[in-house]
Amino acid sequence: MRYAEPIDRLIKAFTRLPGIGEKSATRLALFVLNSGRDYATELASSVITVKDKVSLCPVCMTFSDSNPCAICSDAGRDQAVVCVVSDYKDMMALEAMGGYRGAYHILHGSLAPLKGVGPDDLKIKELIRRLGQGGIKEVILATGFDAEGSVTAMYVAGLVKPFGVIVTRIASGVPAGSFVEYMDGATLGSAMEGRRAF
Question: Omega before 68 cis (within 30°)?
Fold first, then answer.
């Protein structure tokens, strides 16, 4: 038995969301169908509003409803230190940590040649333009430690170093509260390479 065409369209729309398969999409569509009209109106309005009112900050490339974003316009943050992250979720994780008070630059992805993602697909030119304007003293590379994140960090470091700024990479290794015996070889190797004076 097929669903009515409007329900089928809604299911197909939900399956286009990342991580949503057909079963989950069907559950979401039926939830919306069984909810009151007020909920459906609020959901639709929220989607349209986010598309109309949120854009990329022209400085750091984050999603924002102001220009520049709240972080770039915060006089209490050190705009001379820029943390480069792969995506918006990474920036939000660092913000939730609460200890970092510098600026950001979001690349919107990582280099992945096998997936067809090259330098022109990321917000690297915008970072280079920022560096060319002066005032940045340190660039912290906070991309992932998988193959794509590491390649991205090396590529960006190569472009940034000629500007004469300090280039650092976030540490990796043994997480706090864990035991050495349970760590995999790659994590332990990274921890050994990143060791520091105690």
Answer: yes
Neighbours of 4 (CB within 10 A): 9
Residue with tokens 């864990």: 178
What is the C-alpha separation between 134 and 131, in angstroms, rounded?
5
Does 42 share its domain with 137? no
Please give the model's pTM, rounded to 2 decimal places: 0.84
CATH number at residue 40: 1.10.8.420
Q: What are 45-55's pLDDT values in tens digits? A: 999 999 999 99
CA-based nearest residue to 135, from 105, 155, 115, 165: 165
Domain count, the chain: 2
Does the structure show a pLDDT above 90 at 186? Answer: no
Between CA 111 and CA 123 the distance in angstroms is 11
